[in-house]
Design goal:
Number of helices: 10
Largest sheet: 5 strands, antiparallel
Low-confidence stretches: 160-175, 247-252, 257-273
Number of domains: 2
Structural class: alpha+beta
Number of strands: 8
Radius of gyration: 20 Å
CATH architecture of the largest domain: Up-down Bundle
Helix content: 25-40%
Distance between the termini: 18 Å
Mean pLDDT: 76
Length: 273
């Protein structure tokens, strides 16, 4: 399937908005996060088991567009978007989420990050439906969870939503660094930087100076994808922590490939013909 064009994305939004009351469909930016989470599941659900939630938040199977041709068009666009997201993940290319201009507050320096809230909400919703994603021992998946769910929308009281999906990220956040951690480093804290190969990937290397407790942190960010692929913490000559998130390989996946496997050959899931 070809990636969606801007016109396709606009049409996707129109079709989702056309789902009749009382059903509550996703918006296109929420859908992106939802599909991303599906791509990370070890055992992917059948299309009919997750597509119902695209059309209605409660998963009511009666939810659909009145026109069968439009219903088929919506399904095609959703599957095409999912295939594009999955391909990006598997080939270590950044997912370019749908962001509506009206979601960006130009007066807020963090406006673009806030605009990622719908994506994070869709991702968290998928995690609440398939909580096994939160229990994944795959470091790449764990790092993605922390990096994405930190942008989830606050509730009406201004607090982050305490969903079942997010509860599990507290421990993860304490021990899994993300790309944002590298961006947030103070310039004075950086002791060394350059280009290195890590795990067979060309990377930007960043090393911090020794902190008050004697720890030094080292980060490797993929030049191709912009994703954090490795982080280490050292105290003197002792390695105290390491996180790796290297590329995955694939022959088929949720949206059409045969196999989703790690570099060591561990198969995360296989979709039967």
């Amino acid at each position: 399937m070809k990636p969606l064009t801007l016109n396709d994305i606009e049409r996707l939004g129109e079709l989702l908005a056309a789902v009749p009351d009382p059903f509550v469909p996703m918006e296109a930016d929420q859908l992106d996060g939802f599909l991303t989470a599906l791509c990370l599941l070890k055992v992917p659900p059948a299309i009919d088991d997750w597509f119902v939630y695209v059309l209605d938040a409660s998963g009511n199977r009666r939810a659909k567009l009145a026109d069968p041709a439009e219903q088929a068009e919506l399904r095609r666009l959703v599957l095409a978007r999912g295939a594009d997201i999955e391909s990006r993940i598997l080939h270590e290319r950044p997912v370019d989420p749908i962001i509506y201009d009206e979601d960006i507050d130009e007066d807020d320096p963090e406006g673009e990050l806030a605009a990622l809230a719908p994506f994070a909400d869709g991702f968290a919703f998928a995690c609440s439906l398939w909580p096994e994603l939160m229990k994944s021992q795959n470091k790449a998946v764990q790092a993605a969870l922390v990096g994405i769910l930190r942008h989830e929308s606050p509730d009406e009281d201004g607090e982050e939503e305490e969903t079942e999906a997010v509860d599990g990220t507290a421990d993860l956040a304490q021990r899994i660094p993300t790309y944002e951690d590298v961006l947030e480093l103070e310039q004075d804290a950086i002791a060394a930087a350059g280009y290195e190969e890590k795990g067979g990937l060309a990377c930007i290397y960043v090393e911090t100076g020794e902190d008050a407790l004697g720890y030094v942190e080292k980060y490797w960010v993929s030049v191709d994808s912009g994703l954090l692929v490795c982080a280490e913490q050292w105290k003197g000559e002792e390695l105290t922590y390491r996180m790796t998130s290297y590329a995955v390989s694939t022959d088929r996946t949720l949206f059409g490939l045969t196999e989703f496997a790690l570099p060591d050959g561990t198969v995360l899931h296989t979709v039967e013909e």
